[in-house]
Inverse folding.
C-alpha cells in the first residue's frame, strides 16, 4: 500500500479557478499489488501538464463545447508522462516504459486496456526531462508546430508576432520562427518575462502589453523594418488581436490558438475585421488533436525533440511544481502577475 | 460633335455619399472625329457598374488603402462595357466590338493604348444584356464564384448562409450554392427583398435582419435541419457576423467579402472570435482582381454566363438607371430602404 495524492475537480468555477475550492487534493491508499482487469496497466505518474484550455472543461456537463467537460468530483485529467510499474497481462507494454498521453492527476493509476493502448511509448533518446514531453515536446509544442507550419507558413525574412509569448506555445513558436529565418515580435505581461524573451529567447522585439500600446509597438516595428510583420500567432485575443489586424501585412496569416480572456466567458469585441477583406488575410483556428495524423506526429517527433536537445531551440522555460497541490499551479496560469512563469507542470521525479 | 455626360468625383464624402455634392454630372462636347493618339481607341459606353467598394476610393489621396483613391474633380471610374466606335491605328480592335474592363463614367471616351489592351473582348454568344456583364457575369459574379469555390468549398447537403443576399455577389452566391447541392439561408433589409429571395431565388430560408434576430433564425435553422450551416458568405459584417460565428458548424468557412458599415469608416466590434479556435474555422478575405489568373477567368466565363443564359442560374435582378445621374444611383447602394434593388448599373442602350 502507498499513499496516492489525487487532484479532484470539486466545484465549477465562476471566473478564475480558486485553489482548494475549484480543485481539492485528497489522499487515498493505493494497492500496488492489486489485481488488474484484462489488459489494464498500473503506472506511476512522472509529469502532468497544466494548460489554460482546462478551464473550459470545468463547466456543467450539459453545456456543449469544443472539449468535453471534466467530470465533477472525479480526478482532473490531462496530458501526462507515466511509467509502467506493472504491465499485467498486456503484452504491448513492459515494466519501466515511459508513456505519453491522457492520464489522471494522481501519483498512481490503473489505466484500462483501451486507454493504455492509446498512449505513446517515449524512447527519449534525446534525454529531455520528462516534463518537457508534456510541454515543448508535447501538445503545446505540437500546437505551435502545426499552427506555424500549416497556417502561418513562414518565409525567410518575414516577421512573426506572437502574443502570450512566454507560454509553452509561444516559446516553441519563437524557436520555430527563428529556425525558419524569421524575426520575432513577442509580447507578455511582466518585465521579468520581457527580460527572459530578450535575453534567453533572443527575440528581436519584446513588449509588455500592460504598459505599452501594441498599436504603437507594431507600427514602429513595421516602420523600422521597412515591411510589416506578416504572421500573428494569437494566444490571447482582445486588444492585441485588434492591433494585429490593423498592422499586419497584406496576405497576412492569423494563427488562432487561444484567448485567455474568453476562457472565463467574457466577451471582447474585435474591431477592424474588415481588414480580413482589405488585406486578404487568412485567419484560421484548429484543435491540434484533430489535426495531427500519425504521419504528422512522426514528423513532429523527428524535428522538435532533437532540436530541443541539441540547443538549436532555446531550452524551454518550465514552471515546475513538485507533486500535486490544491490547484495553486493551475490557478497561476490565469495570473499574469505570477512571478514564476513558463510551461506549468507537475513533476513527480 | 456630340454631348458627353460625365460623372465627376466632386467632394470627399463624410459618411454616406450625397448626390450632387459627392458626385456631380457635367456635360461637355465630344468630337467623335478627333485624332486619336497612337494605339488609342474611341468608345461609347454601354453599361457601367456601381459597387459599394467605390465608397472606399472616395478619400483623400494621401490615405493608403486596399484600392487606389479616386482622383478628385476627375471622372469616376469603374467596370464597364464599351463599344468600339473607332479602333484608330490599333490593329487589335475593330469597330463594333464590345469590351469589358475599367472605364470612365461618361458617354464617350478615348481610351489610351495600354488601358485599351487591358480590356477583354466580349463575344456574348450567350446573348446576355450588357449590364449583366458588369454584374453577375462581371466582377461581382467573379467575387461570388471565387469566394464560394475556393474558400467556401461547398459540399452537397451543406447549408450556405449569405448576408446582403440581394446584392450582386449575394445573388450569384445563391445560384452557385444551389448548383452545388446546398441549401441557402439569405438575409436582406426589406420585405420586398425577402419576397424576391423566397419567390424568385428560391432560397430555403430568408430573413429580414432589421426585424428578425439573426441568432434566432440561425439557431432555428440548425435545429430544424439537424446540422448547422457550415459556410458564411459575409457581405455585411456587424451583428450578422457575430451571429454567424456563434452558430456556424465546426470546421466552418467564412468567406469575407465586404462590410457595408465599415465602408463609412465606422467600427463594429465582433464578439465571439474565439469560435475560430473552438470550431476550427477558416476565415479568409480576398480581392478578386488579385486572385483571378487568366486560367480562372476562362473557367469563370465558361461556367457562369452560360448558366445565366440557360436559366440554370436565376436571372439576376438588376436596378438599371438609364444614362448618368448626379450620383443618386450610387447613393442608393447605401440605403437599404431603397425600393429598387438588385445589381446597380447605368445602361446607355
Amino acid at each position: 500500500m502507498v499513499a496516492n495524492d489525487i487532484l479532484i475537480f470539486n466545484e465549477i468555477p465562476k471566473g478564475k479557478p480558486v485553489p482548494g475550492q475549484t480543485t481539492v487534493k485528497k489522499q487515498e491508499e493505493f494497492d500496488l499489488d492489486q489485481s488488474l482487469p484484462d489488459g489494464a496497466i498500473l503506472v506511476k505518474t512522472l509529469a502532468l501538464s497544466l494548460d489554460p484550455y482546462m478551464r473550459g472543461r470545468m463547466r456543467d456537463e450539459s453545456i456543449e463545447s469544443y472539449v468535453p467537460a471534466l467530470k465533477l468530483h472525479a480526478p482532473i485529467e490531462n496530458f501526462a508522462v507515466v511509467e509502467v510499474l506493472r504491465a499485467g497481462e498486456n503484452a504491448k507494454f513492459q515494466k519501466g516504459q515511459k508513456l505519453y498521453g491522457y492520464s489522471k492527476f494522481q501519483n498512481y493509476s490503473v489505466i484500462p486496456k483501451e486507454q493504455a493502448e492509446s498512449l505513446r511509448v517515449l524512447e527519449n533518446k534525446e534525454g529531455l526531462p520528462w516534463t518537457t514531453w508534456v510541454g515543448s515536446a508535447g501538445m503545446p509544442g505540437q500546437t505551435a508546430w502545426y499552427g506555424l507550419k500549416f497556417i502561418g507558413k513562414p518565409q525567410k525574412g518575414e516577421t512573426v508576432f506572437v502574443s502570450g509569448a512566454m507560454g509553452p506555445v509561444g516559446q516553441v513558436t519563437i524557436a520555430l520562427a527563428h529556425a525558419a529565418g524569421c524575426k520575432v515580435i513577442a509580447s507578455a505581461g511582466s518585465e521579468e518575462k520581457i527580460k527572459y524573451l530578450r535575453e534567453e529567447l533572443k527575440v528581436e522585439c519584446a513588449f509588455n502589453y500592460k504598459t505599452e500600446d501594441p498599436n504603437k509597438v507594431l507600427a514602429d516595428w513595421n516602420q523600422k523594418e521597412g515591411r510589416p510583420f506578416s504572421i500573428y500567432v494569437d494566444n490571447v485575443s482582445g486588444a492585441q488581436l485588434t492591433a494585429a489586424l490593423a498592422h499586419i501585412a497584406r496576405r497576412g496569416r492569423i494563427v488562432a490558438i487561444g484567448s485567455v480572456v474568453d476562457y472565463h466567458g467574457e466577451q471582447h469585441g474585435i474591431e477592424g475585421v474588415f481588414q480580413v477583406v482589405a488585406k486578404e488575410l487568412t485567419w484560421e483556428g484548429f484543435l491540434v488533436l484533430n489535426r495531427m495524423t500519425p504521419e504528422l506526429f512522426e514528423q513532429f517527433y523527428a524535428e522538435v525533440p532533437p532540436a530541443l536537445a541539441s540547443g538549436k531551440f532555446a531550452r524551454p522555460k518550465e514552471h515546475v511544481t513538485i507533486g500535486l497541490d490544491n490547484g495553486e499551479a493551475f490557478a497561476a496560469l490565469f495570473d499574469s502577475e505570477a512571478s514564476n512563469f513558463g510551461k506549468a507542470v507537475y513533476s513527480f521525479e
About this structure: The interface with chain A takes residues 65-66, 237, 241, 250, 256-259, 262, 267-287, 290 of chain B (CB under 8 Å). The first helix of chain B runs from residue 54 to 57.
